[in-house]
Amino acid sequence: MKDLKVSTAVCGIDCFNCELYFKNIDSFFEKMSKERKAGFTSRGMTKEKLLCKGCRISGCTMIAGKCETLECAKLRKLDFCFECSDFPCSKLQPLAEGADRYPHNLKIYNLTTIKNKGLEKWASEVTEIRERYFKGKFKIGAGPQK
Question: What pTM was computed for the model?
Answer without folding.
Answer: 0.84
